[in-house]
Design brief:
Blueprint lengths: L1 H13 L5 H19 L17 H19 L4 H22 L2 H7 L3 E5 L2 E7 H4 L12 H12 L4 E8 L6 H21 L4 E10 L10 H7 L1 E8 L3
Parallel strand pairs: 3-4
Antiparallel strand pairs: 1-2, 2-5, 3-5
Length: 236
């Protein structure tokens, strides 16, 4: 019994000690894991506002850290070293995948649909994700998505850009139009500040006009509340 205890103590003393770098990797991994599981967010009214999906790089980092931890439990590698290795490899793979993604794939990652009809390109943005619920305030969690929208617009030079806002409010027509127009204006202001190459950029609020789903049910309201960005090529 004493020999077994001595062996365990010796093995404990001789085990690999975690470095500061591996400790930092474990802390980063744990923070990312808790952030993902808890659903926390830095946006106002975080209990209601939609949270953007993790980037491909962050997803790969989380997966790599988890895989590294599992491997450490079945080998002689310490948990911090396993997590560090997994985080580094996962991050590298995730960043590589992100660089290979096209702009349309990045937009799709955030739930933005892209349609091309003859000489027009339309981007469909669901209002429930890009705004704080019941307000015209942009959802900071989706700023990266709007950054990609701006990059997409910059990739199509010499265009006119129309930002149309639609809401699902039926009570007051005037208020509904003003509300949807302000949401469209805030989107337009954001992408304009990012250096959009547009000869003409204007906004329009349509309120509850042109519904494409039943406004009497919640699912229909979510579909009808939308921002449509229409790009039309101009002759130079």
């Amino acid at each position: 019994m004493r020999m077994i205890l001595i062996k365990k103590i010796t093995r404990y003393k001789n085990r690999e000690k975690p470095t500061m770098l591996s400790k930092l990797a474990c802390f980063t991994y744990t923070a990312l894991l808790l952030w993902t599981l808890s659903g926390c967010s830095t946006v106002p009214h975080r209990s209601q506002a939609a949270r953007a999906p993790l980037s491909i790089a962050n997803q790969a980092t989380l997966f790599g850290g988890t895989a590294g931890y599992i491997v450490s439990k079945t080998t002689s590698i310490s948990a911090p070293a396993g997590v560090l290795t997994g985080v580094v490899l996962g991050r590298a793979i995730g960043l590589s995948l992100e660089r290979r993604m096209t702009l349309q794939q990045r937009l799709a990652h955030f739930g933005i649909k892209v349609y091309e009809i003859e000489d027009e390109i339309m981007l469909w943005l669901p209002t429930e994700k890009f705004f704080i619920p019941g307000s015209v305030q942009l959802n900071p969690s989706y700023f990266p998505a709007l950054d990609n929208v701006a990059l997409f617009l910059q990739s199509v030079p010499h265009v006119s850009v129309k930002v149309s806002g639609y809401s699902s409010y039926l009570e007051d027509k005037v208020e509904s139009i003003a509300f949807s127009k302000q949401q469209a204006q805030n989107i337009a202001d954001y992408i304009w500040e990012k250096g959009t190459d547009s000869r003409v950029l204007y906004v329009k609020g349509y309120g509850a006009a042109d519904p494409i789903a039943d406004n009497r049910i919640m699912a229909g309201k979510k579909i009808n509340a939308r921002i449509i960005i229409t790009l039309r090529r101009l002759t130079v």
